[in-house]
Amino acid sequence: MDLLKEKILKEGIALSDTVLKVDSFLNHQIDPLLMREIGEGLAQLFTDEVITKIVTIESSGIAPATMLGLIIGAPVVFARKKKSITHTDDVYTAKVKSFTKQDLNEIYINKNFISEDDNVLIVDDFLANGEAVRGLVDIVKQSGAQLIGVGIVIEKGFQKGGDSLRREGIVVKSLANIKSLSKGKIEFYEDFE
Amino acid sequence: MDLLKEKILKEGIALSDTVLKVDSFLNHQIDPLLMREIGEGLAQLFTDEVITKIVTIESSGIAPATMLGLIIGAPVVFARKKKSITHTDDVYTAKVKSFTKQDLNEIYINKNFISEDDNVLIVDDFLANGEAVRGLVDIVKQSGAQLIGVGIVIEKGFQKGGDSLRREGIVVKSLANIKSLSKGKIEFYEDFE
Predict the structure, then answer these.
(1) Using the beta-carbon criterion (under 8 Å), do B32 and A59 form an inter-chain contact?
(2) Which of A129, A180, A185, B98 to pair with B142, CA 20 to 30 A apart?
(3) Strand B53-57 vs strand B20-21: parallel, antiparallel, or unpaired?
């Protein structure tokens, strides 16, 4: 995903040693052509797997997950962060601490949309401490579905989330893995380049 | 958009006279192939217009807006509902009352992502009382951009939002326009079929 890395280097802003702002193409403004490339890149990361459902979380996971879904022909379910009155059925829930917003959300997915027959790929835009992905993994486990793995657009590899999940035997793959944001400079891990 | 209407009739549930649940393909689970059709349908509704930016609101507007953006080659900006620490710049804001969640949200878009040179199409999944669209129209006006119109996936035409916007001279077009949800039966307006 050279295109993604070029975009991160060109438009990403290291706001601090831990916060990368990619608002101009990923999580506020969306570049649809890049998003299609991201969908194709994620499909290639899991090309040997049969995926029957893609699970993500609102809001920034929706665009990459939908593009991947279009490419591999699988439906997408996005976990929601708050109950709304149109959700009256039974739901799977998990608690997730937001890294950037510093608050605790309950996320949920309607039980109708994941079954024990599903092979689930979790997709998200960012992986830092892994709280959102852990919540989604928790929900997939509750459903009895098989977890194929986790596909991430941008992993902040210097934070603990990805490695902690991998140590537990979960397959986590990222299109771009950031080694450091220190002094305003964005550096990637070599082995992902 | 016969495919959309078929899907609404097949999978939509009229929970009450005003609430239509389409969680299985639009706002919880997403059918990516239908979403591409929706993107193509929206493009056809505004085929004579030059659109430089698509503006929507998280979360359920993101997938249709991104598919439309891919088809017409325009970037998407989605308004966010809460300030996060990665948003430090100046933002346009508007207040929006949620129809389904019965609460008041402040929505915002970073000033970097809409300029007075833009021709903006607003896209959303639902149009009922029009509160979300009004908030987006407000933001587009603040930016000085030209508002081309509003493209909606499902309008609940029996509610006042769409007609109220049209009376103000705003071009509002919908792929499916619902006449009634009474007694659990979903009926469309004939002139949109």
Answers:
(1) no
(2) B98
(3) unpaired
pLDDT in tens, chain B (193 residues): 699 999 999 999 999 999 999 999 999 999 999 999 999 999 999 999 999 999 999 999 999 999 999 999 999 999 998 755 455 569 999 998 876 666 788 999 999 999 999 999 999 999 999 999 999 999 999 999 999 999 999 999 999 899 999 999 999 999 999 999 999 999 999 754 4
Name every chain B residue with its beta carbon within 8 A of the beta carbon of A80.
Answer: 28, 59
Q: Give the SS3 label for residue A30.
A: strand
Cα–Cα distances in Å, from A4 out to A41, A177, B19, B78, B89? 10, 11, 40, 20, 24
- Distance between CA B23 and CA A77 in Å, rounded? 9
Across the interface, of A15, A19, A77, the residue whose CB is closest to B28 is A77
Prediction pTM value: 0.94
Distances (CA, A) of A191 to A127, A158, A174, A175: 17, 14, 11, 11
Distance from CA of A193 to the nearest CA of B (A): 26
From the list A80, A141, A133, the residue with the least C-alpha distance to A105 is A80
Q: How many residues does chain A have?
A: 193
CA–CA gap between residue A1 and residue A34 (Å, rounded) = 10
- ipTM above threshold 0.90: yes
